[in-house]
Amino acid sequence: MSFLTPRLFAIANMISDREVVADIGTDHAYLSIYLAKDKRASKIFATDINEKPLAVAKNNIMSFGVADKIELLLADGIEWIREKDLKISSCIMAGMGSGTILKILEDDCKNIDCYVISSNTDVEPIRKWAKSKKYFIEREEIILDNDIIYEIIKINKFAGQKIKTKEDLIFGPILYKTKHNQYFLTKWMEEEQKLTTLLNQIPKNEKKYKEFLKRKNIITKMLKKENSN
Ligand SMILES: C[S@@+](CC[C@H](N)C(=O)[O-])C[C@H]1O[C@@H](n2cnc3c(N)ncnc32)[C@H](O)[C@@H]1O
Which residues pair with 161 in a beta bridge? Predict the structure, then answer.
């Protein structure tokens, strides 16, 4: 399907066959439609907090002929999953900021096995949340879409990589340990540059200085190791 952007395609690739999926903040519902057409998901609950995107989603779903597989819901977050006592194998949250995603995750419940998350902002707070819950990282991808680099992560409650170190939190336990692609390196070279600029601007006795320096040193160490390989 040509309408699927590289980001949405990478998210779809994290869904296995015959899953029951929740697509929170579906907007146009393109991802849900792809998952339905591709037969990857057996059932999809596509939700949005706003009525306007849901009306667009409804039109798109009808024109692609997948209304039998996708249930549209006007809902805020994921509380409805527990209320309806549904079993969701993967709950997708994409195209929102980490603050909104973390707020939604406050309603995490045992009815959901995995989360596939593609945040518009820094992913580290999401990894922190997963670590605090003792959940695992099953998959991680870093991709380029429309000149923006996105990290996409699949959190699994039962299996995967543990988040153990500061490096795991910053870079991601899988992305850190596997061969680094050009987007991974670009992202962290840019972050290193940003931190260098910041460190030149704030007084050394400020608390933030120490935090930024520590973070920069971790990034520099990783990049140096990469260059020596
Ligand atoms: C930028 S769109 C992302 C669409 C699609 N998921 C994607 O990644 O391309 C974000 C959508 O999330 C919806 N949204 C924001 N907060 C939400 C919440 N708490 N619960 C459900 N939907 C929400 C918005 O109404 C909007 O349609």
Answer: 137
Q: For residue 48, report the distance from its CA to the centre of ligand 1, in Å.
A: 6
pLDDT at 2 (0 to 100)? 64
Quick: pLDDT tens for 188-217.
Answer: 999 999 999 999 999 999 999 999 999 999
Quote the pLDDT of residue 1.
55
Ligand 1 site-directed mutation target among 50, 51, 148, most atoms within 8 Å of CB = 50
Protein residue with its CA nearest to atom 13 in ligand 1: 25
Considering the domain architecture, whether residues 107 and 192 belong to the same structural domain is answered as no
**In this structure, is residue 170 part of a structural domain?**
no
Is any ligand 1 atom within 6 A of the Cβ of residue 160? no
Task: Check pocket membership of 95 for ligand 1, CB cut-off 6 A.
Answer: yes
ipTM above 0.95, yes or no: yes
In a domain, 204, yes or no: yes
Overall number of domains in the chain: 2
**Strand ranges for 18-160 from DSSP E:** 19-24, 41-48, 70-74, 88-96, 112-119, 136-145, 148-156
Query: What range defines the domain where residue 214 resides?
Result: 182-228
> In terms of domains, do 209 and 142 share one?
no
Rounded to an integer, what distance in angstroms lies between the CA atom of residue 18 and that of residue 14?
12
